[in-house]
């Protein structure tokens, strides 16, 4: 990035030298900020929207008569500016009490910043923040929904395995099975949902076909050595709530059932890296097929790291061509470091 930035500066200086300052357009000026924007916000494809493009979108969305657009938009902007000045003034104006309080908007509007920050850190630092799924959930489930349903027998078995791995000091079993001492019965009854909203983001699932594009997510898993972490892409099949009675408390867990993609070999996975440096590879290639069902298919919603865009990519060599799934991560709508 530094080398590309230096070349851009050199080209713009040559334009100024040969054609004059008047040829340095806003586009050229803004391109000098690409480097620092990439460091701040990640890959270019995740934020490519300069100020003038964003303003064009804002102006185009304002209501107008389609006859005298310019003065109408200017009047709206001037009116909003005056209202903002009055609201932000330290003096109390009794006559406009209705305008004093504006509802906050965005991903942090409903929840305190420290709570949202901790919620996000749970998905990033899974070694330091073990999550069971019954912790405070800063979001809501959305339709389509089905209440008090029976889970498929295979998923029911995986749910029991999930509880066994999560609460290692407890014993879990199915209803009408051997009555082990101090064991907890896991009832096959849950509430299933097709979508989930966390802050300003909505995650879809395969169960909500109209929102399937937002069902592709990333999550971190602890490797078998217990010290390292890898990120895996997958597709959410559905969200569900399940309650279990444990330690004299009824604990409700917010969970997601996700199918995970298989990794490609290392050479193919980092196909887009620069100078064989895997740290420069934002877009990775994965097999376009899922792992078989296992206990890892069930994770707490708190552990969802973010979304990605799946793209079919065909990689060819001298002998054959193979199609992979290119995983393009999307930045969260709130950025915390």
TrEMBL record:
PANTHER family: C2H2-TYPE DOMAIN-CONTAINING PROTEIN, F5/8 TYPE C DOMAIN-CONTAINING PROTEIN-RELATED. This is DUF4218 domain-containing protein.
């Amino acid at each position: 990035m530094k080398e590309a930035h230096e070349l851009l500066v050199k080209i713009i200086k040559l334009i100024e030298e040969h054609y004059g300052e008047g040829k340095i357009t806003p586009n050229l000026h803004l391109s000098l900020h690409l480097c620092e924007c990439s460091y701040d916000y990640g890959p270019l494809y995740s934020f490519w929207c300069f100020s003038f493009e964003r303003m064009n979108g804002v102006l185009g969305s304002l209501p107008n008569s389609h006859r005298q657009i310019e003065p109408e938009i200017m009047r709206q902007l001037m009116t909003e500016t005056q209202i903002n000045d009055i609201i932000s003034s330290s003096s109390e104006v009794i006559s406009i009490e209705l305008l004093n309080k504006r509802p906050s908007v965005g991903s942090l509007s409903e929840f305190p910043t420290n709570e949202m920050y901790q919620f996000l850190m749970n998905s990033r630092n899974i070694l330091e923040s073990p999550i069971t799924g019954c912790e405070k959930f800063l979001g809501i489930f959305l339709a389509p929904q089905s209440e008090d349903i029976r889970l498929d027998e295979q998923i029911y078995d995986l749910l029991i395995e999930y509880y066994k791995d999560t609460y290692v000091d407890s014993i879990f079993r199915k209803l009408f099975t051997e009555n082990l001492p101090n064991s907890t019965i896991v009832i096959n009854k849950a509430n299933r949902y097709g979508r989930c909203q966390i802050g300003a983001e909505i995650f879809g699932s395969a169960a909500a076909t109209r929102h399937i594009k937002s069902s592709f997510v990333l999550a971190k898993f602890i490797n078998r050595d217990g010290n390292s972490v890898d990120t895996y892409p997958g597709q959410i099949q559905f969200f569900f709530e399940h309650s279990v009675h444990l330690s004299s408390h009824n604990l409700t867990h917010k969970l997601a059932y996700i199918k995970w993609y298989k990794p490609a070999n290392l050479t193919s996975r980092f196909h887009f890296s620069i100078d064989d440096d895997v740290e420069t590879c934002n877009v990775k290639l994965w097999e376009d097929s899922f792992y078989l069902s296992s206990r890892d298919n069930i994770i707490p919603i708190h552990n969802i790291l973010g979304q990605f865009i799946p793209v079919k990519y065909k990689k060819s060599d001298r002998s054959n061509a193979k199609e992979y799934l290119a995983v393009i991560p999307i930045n969260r709508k709130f950025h915390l470091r």
